[in-house]
Amino acid sequence: MLKIARIFLTTRADYSTAQRMVASISRTPVITCKRTQFNLFVEDVASSGNSGNEHVKFGKLELASSGWHHHKSSGDYFIIHPIRQAFEAHALSQNSFQQLGIRDELVQNLKQRHVLFPTVYQAEAIPTVLNGSHILLAAETGCGKTYTYLVPIVEQILSRKLTNVAREFNSPLVLIVTPGRELAQQIGRVVEGFTQGLGITSRVLLGGKTKQQMLNPHFEDVDILIASFGAVSKLVSSGIYRMNAVRWVVLDEADTLLDDSFNAKLLHLMKRFPFHKNHLQDLGDNIFGTQLVLAAATMPSNMSELLSQIVNIETMEEVVSPNLHKLMSHISQRFMRINKSDRPSVLLDIVRKDVKRNRPLIIFSNKTPASDFVSIHLNEADIPCVNLNGDMLLKLRLGQFEKFQSGEVNVLSTTDVASRGLDTTRAAHVINFDCPLYAADYIHRIGRIGRVGSRNDCLVTNLVSSRSEISAIQRIEHAARTNSLLANVDANIKGIIRRKIERSINSAK
């Protein structure tokens, strides 16, 4: 304390600054800023009531980023601090898997994968899946949604002895659909490990080779089919895979699958399944219903409208986490206002520090050219970095994510193709080289860290340059200061853009 006083006690203004610094030492920070007048502490929020400033509308609250549109704001920053520990974010249930109705064989397989107890969310959702209702699993990223639906589905396959029922080749019992190839591969590995020794077969279908598979199809017994949407859509339409025996359809990252990019073709595929029938009641030989399971970390505002085209909404159960659409409160999030021309050098400096610490990181860009640039820029600086984006040829794309997961490299440059669902417990740092312009994208990107099994010192760094980026992060800062939900969370990005174009055209008329 005396040292601080000696440094600052030169003017009355400096004395006031020193007093504020001393007072802040014993307080718990929510947000700290370069300009200390914008600092926010837990004690400040508590003193204003349990709801904090939740009632304050966007635009009515003074933000550290309010002046960032001015070019002289370069060099400013603010940090959103974690206010709880990782184990609090993914709290374990007091109930065991056995108490939820899961057999010992499956529990042992879970233990071999270091899953000893269900999370609170899993304990609530698993019985609902077991009951056979159509269900929407809506929860923050990283809380274990894959096991939430996979465990009760496999339990039902075994309890009803469905693997003993004669079926044609390529006629699965379970269809798990994902929007991307990497996620399909990841779920395939989870399914293969979890069902080991149970006599359940699985197969992964990836896009990019569908023509080859149509010309030279492979026929086999398969119980669980995991597929990227493009691949399964084509191979089902061509008759190579038959859907008449499917009793469970899972749409993983359902918010993305239901957006305008997939919607029409997805609805066409979903019409093949008898969702209207009672799933638990076998109506006779080869007559049964299909249970629909949707898993999502963000929910589009028109989710009910989209689902009504597939199932009767009244038959849909929802298990929604209280943390859905909230900022992750157990990781640090840093926002740096910099000039666009300075981003490469700032990025290089940050990455070099992480490499020295042996801290794996993922760098997100909004578009493929930027992702390519980041990868080239880092590799030229002798920092091994792999690149992953949706425009890459399949033979180049496959295995890129695995290089990062296996530890072959510690830096991954990517677009939002890697932001949905991928379980990256190795990663400890996410850098947004381009800040995402939509809240849904921000939620998914930062969800690559702070997951069940992740390190406790995870960090997000946002390099903020453009006016549109500043507007986006102001909404994030507002949500952090008011302890409220992120506004305008909608995964249907294509739909948002289309509506904006329509509005601009109409206004021009």
Structural write-up:
With 509 residues, this protein is an alpha/beta fold. The protein has two domains: 51-80 and 327-488, Rossmann fold (3-Layer(aba) Sandwich); 94-320, P-loop containing nucleotide triphosphate hydrolases (Rossmann fold, 3-Layer(aba) Sandwich). It is 37% helix and 14% strand. The chain is built from 20 helices and 16 strands. The chain has helices spanning 2-8, 12-25, 42-47, 86-89, 104-112, 120-130, 145-159, 181-194, 210-215, 229-237, 254-257, 263-270, 303-307, 343-357, 368-380, 394-397, 400-405, 439-446, 467-482, 493-508, and strands at residues 29-33, 40-41, 77-80, 134-138, 174-178, 202-205, 224-228, 248-252, 291-296, 316-320, 332-337, 361-364, 386-388, 411-414, 429-432, 459-464. The strands form two sheets. It has a nine-stranded mixed β-sheet with strand order 2-1-3-11-16-15-12-14-13, with helices on both faces. Strands 6-7-5-8-9-4-10 form a seven-stranded parallel β-sheet. β1 (29-33) and β2 (40-41) form a beta hairpin. α6 runs parallel beside α7 (145-159). The chain is globular, with a radius of gyration of 25 Å. The termini are far apart.
